[in-house]
Amino acid sequence: MIILGINSYHPDSSAALVIDGRLIAACEEERFRRVKHFSGFPTHSLQYCLKEGNVELKDIDYIAIPRQPKARLMRKIFYGIKIPELARRRLFAWEKMFAVKDELAANFGVDAKEIEARIIKVEHHHAHIASSFFVSGFRKAAILSADALGDFASTVWGLGEGNKIKIKREVAFPHSLGFYYTALTQYLGFLNFGDEYKVMGLAAFGEASYEDEFRKILEINGRGFKLGLKYFLHDKKLVDMDFEGGHPKVDTLFSPYLEKRLGKRRMPEGEIEKRHKDIACSLQKRLEEALLNIVNSIAVDSDNLCLSGGVAFNCVANAKISANSRFKNIYVPPACGDAGLALGAAYYVWNSFLDKPRACRMSHAYWGPEFSGSEIGKELDKHRAELSNINCSIETAVNDDDLACKIAREISSGKIVGWFQGRMEWGPRALGSRSILTDPRRREMKDIINSKIKRRESFRPFAPSILEEYAGEYFEGFCDSPFMLFALKVREDKKNLIPAVVHVDGTARLQTVNKESNPLYWKLINEFNNITGVPVLLNTSFNENEPVVCAPAEAIDCFLRSNIDILVLGNYIIKR
Questions:
Q1: Which residue from 40, 96, 493, 528 has the highest number of Cβ atoms inside 10 Å of its Cβ?
Q2: pLDDT digits over 477-503, tens only?
Q3: The model's pTM
Q4: Would strands 62-65 and 118-121 be described as parallel, antiparallel, or unpaired?
Q5: Which domain holds residue 392?
Q6: 509-542: string of b/e by CB count within 10 Å (b at 16+)?
């Protein structure tokens, strides 16, 4: 049984291929198009998935689409009458999304009649939950999906058991934790789609001095929460959400009343003042309170919790849930946002619609493209003149042990390394396949990478990759974090050992590295530990204000235009 999941004409368009319950491939279109959060049709992702599975379009049995127009139909009709342009936009998007066979035929040069797959429409939040629960390994768990909006709901929660998802409660449009956080992110001057994570980092620098006002902006109650709608615009008029041109963007969500209460908005290039930090802190704290209110209300006879939806990327909130709820085991998938809808829709069809046995436990995120040594060598040949012009040497490692030893020594001496290995990560986090790595013991590395390579805001932290075996020694309240989705307190006696990855509030967004999941990356960190006595590397995504690199050519280009000292492509080592 072959199932193709597709998220298209929506931010973070993506594709996933499941064959007989086994995940074969999953990737986001932005990596191929080089457009952040690309929202068009995921042609390249689909091509990759089909190639990886060695299947053709005519072989597909089911196409899973994470949208269900019939869901919450009366609410959709109500707002369609209230905001007619919104209805027109939605109908146009649905028409394009469900004409998927025509899109596939046009993009792959086949007759649409050859594509006999049955199209299954999966409700948005069911797809989110499936992307977490059905690959978590839990037979039973509390489930929570929270994002901006999908099929006119923003938040749903309930029980996952066996092959079934049972929704107990939901919060419908216009009330939304996603819109809440995005609106305040815009107010704070971060206007690019997906900038919410910047505000999460900024929040650590402030105090929750605006918490009284935020109790009005986001009201918490026995049914979950509701927004103080006078602070927002999205329920009153069409807020332009342009997802059709490939470059997603969202118009202003907050109202003049919010500026009246909090003061004039910060412009993108404006100074970040203390009040902005305090507003960010108050915003973050209130989100955590709302999520904990919901999580602690879920009446499920289980110690397990599965989180999904874009709000689950908030690793600070995830850690608060871990520390302040009764749930002992929390699973958050690597692509918990909208990219994960493709995978979730496919597994919803396999497990719930077809009632097939659970067959996948996602313990790693390496589901994207991989490149052979010969492919890397050919790409290097194309760039040899450019590399020679900047006095680069090229050598090869004999084997993985040799590679790990050489690069660990270079990192311990202060070098910054672009690390390109194996299959690309699924989800937005670099997890040791497409990473920039350096020494976390060197406090100055944070500023060096921020200013000279990433060229981003100085307040944003970097993450540690730590050998799984040592995580409890370095972090308080340790929980498994293979996908870098929990920000935990660094133990007091370890902070001075890894200052470059400790945020101002004493936390770090850790990645726990498992020997079986990524043996080469584990080996590299272990060699660094043998040299330094510290089982941690500073890890950030291999990019420079662009999507994370996918192919060798992009890695080489990033190396050439940045201040990375060493580029490791497979077993090739390129040094400046």
A1: 528
A2: 888 899 999 999 999 999 999 999 999
A3: 0.95
A4: parallel
A5: 373-575
A6: bbbbbbeebbeebbbbbbbbbeebebbbbbbbbb
